[in-house]
Amino acid sequence: MQKLNDLSRSLIPLQPDGTLIAVIEMSLSSWLVAGIVPGVERQPLKKLEVDENALLKLLNRWREEAEKAGHRIERIAVAFEAGRDGFWLARWLRAHDIEAHVIHTSSVAVSREHRRAKTDRLDTELLKRSFLGWLRGERNHCKMVAIPTIKDEDAKRPNREHESLVGEQSRIVNRMKAALIRLGIRGFNPKLKKAAERLDGLRTPEGEPIPPNSLAELRRDMVRRRLVSDQIRQIEDARLERLKQAPSDGPHAMVHLLARVIGVGVETADMLVQEVLSRSMRDRRAVARYAGLTGSPDESGRRRREKGLTRSGNARVRRGMIQLAWRFLMFQKDSALAQWFRARTESARGTRKTMIVALARKLLIALWRLVREGVVPDGVVLRPAS
């Protein structure tokens, strides 16, 4: 039986005489489709406009060519790399009874030459070799990405929009502070409710008011900041309303359980559930790898060194877990994880930043077990169930 999220190889036996294989090199303006058609010696290559119906017609035409050559096609397998287009094409192909896969981009081996030739045609050859090895059930040719439903993708949007808006708000505030400091004005907080009214009373060290163009710019920035702040509040209110309307829904129940951990807020809990904890992970190692909290060893001969984090996983989860690990040390001082961290950093200078990553990895696995198996980490204090 295939394990959860085990996408490193195909477990379906490959029948070369009855399988039509196609890979797509996608760009904004066109698709380059390469195929392996049973009974046809040439390996066709066709450039299409960005049109899913044209792709379906092309696959059906290749099927007819194979049948004319005496090969009955029972399986059509299509693959393309994960990228800007997301997963809509894979869902559309599966809805039309075509086996579709999305290849993890960094899992495809490429030439290590300093100036290697790179064209769409050469990229399709790489994809064909990798996809063929995957279909044969051989490991380490490439890895596939789990294709989410449109509902799962949509559930991530509020958190990601919230993160983007918070960053935009910080950029606006920093820009206003920099404009004031350039005039020699310090100690003014542009985030106060009456900040716009106080602008006219500000004076430079020379006793002059703020120049008119700079003043107009600051007022526009304040209006923009209030708009962003209102949008952030709308997202937060909508999140709380969703959790209140369906508290026992699968992801919502996970959010409520995580929010009971002292030190974990609703925003962090919702981000972790939507980005990682609601996914079907194979084991704890897969959870850590998905977050990019695993190491990248560099070993050759006698050389043994660590190059740091792989940073190949979900950056949002990685940033959130490292921030949560620092908060965890403040709010859960008597937990086994906090004691483990202190025991390894109290007498070792310069190790706190390194060990906080290890703590973040252990904490993520502990939270994953909490929402999946109901196992409360040792010494962790929970809020009373509401």
Automatic annotation (TrEMBL):
InterPro entries: Transpos_IS110, Transposase_20
GO MF annotation terms: DNA binding; transposase activity
GO biological process: DNA transposition
Domain Transposase IS116/IS110/IS902 C-terminal as annotated: residue spans: 256-333
Pfam families found in the cross-reference section: Transposase_20 (PF02371)
Coiled coil: none
Region forming the signal peptide: none
Disordered: annotated span: 293-312
Protein name: IS110 family transposase
Organism: Bradyrhizobium canariense
